[in-house]
Amino acid sequence: MSFLPVLVMGIILFVITVLLSVADKLLVSYGTCRITVEQDGEEKNFDVEGGANLLSYLIDNGIEISSSCGGKGSCGYCKVQVPEGGGPILPTEEIFMSRQEKLRNMRLACQVKVKNDLKITIPNYLEVVSEMAAADKFDTSKRWFVRIY
Ligand code: FES
Q1: What is the pLDDT of residues 37-72, one digit of tens each?
Q2: Cβ of 112 less than 6 Å from ligand 1
Q3: Ligand 1 mean position to 96 CA, how many Å?
Q4: Interval 25-34: pLDDT, tens
Q5: Does 71 sit in the ligand 1 pocket, CB within 6 Å?
Q6: Ligand 1 within 6 A of CB of 125
Q7: Would you kindly state where each structural domain of the chain is located, as residue ranges?
């Protein structure tokens, strides 16, 4: 049994992945994007150089978003409402969303790539946890914390 074809195919896929990542970083420019955040009835705006994920921009601008997977898209805790500019929901997000959440344009902040101006609303995380528990999508084995000020 020869592993050579599998090894060659793996190397080819790795090289293609690296080339696409480099091309995305060097050749694609999304320019300056304005992110408008509504939280607890207050609105905040900030401008960013597009291209990274929404979660990183929110954290960089002092907006706390729950996350236990570090932005890998595996915990489902970084839900925000993106009524404008988020594009279609990704298959990686769908498993964490109920039908009602999809209708309300809820997204995982770590999966939304900022390519244009965005308007988002930070939800009340107690409601997010309640909906996840009601939809049987709350994994109690994952770390979860809620800060109440
Ligand atoms: S940070 Fe875990 S899914 Fe987004």
Answers
A1: 998 889 999 999 988 999 999 999 999 888 889 899
A2: no
A3: 10
A4: 777 778 899 9
A5: yes
A6: no
A7: 1-29, 31-134
Sign of CA dihedral 27, 32, 36, 37: positive
Q: Ligand 1: does its nearest atom lie under 6 Å from the Cβ of 107?
A: no
Q: Is 66 in the pocket of ligand 1 (CB under 6 A)?
A: no
Residue 127 vs residues 64, 120, 134: alpha-carbon distances, Å: 16, 17, 10
DSSP output for 1-64: ---HHHHHHHHHHHHHHHHHHHHHHHH----EEEEEEEETTEEEEEEEESSSBHHHHHHHTT--
Quick: pLDDT tens for 134-148: 777 666 665 555 454
pLDDT tens string 105-132: 999 999 999 999 999 999 877 776 777 7
Structure tokens at 53: 């994920």
Whole-model pTM?
0.73
CATH class of the region 31-134: alpha beta
The pair of three-digit structure tokens given for residue 119, joined into one six-digit string: 């308007």
CA–centroid distance, 62 to ligand 1, in Å, is 17
**DSSP symbol at 142:** S
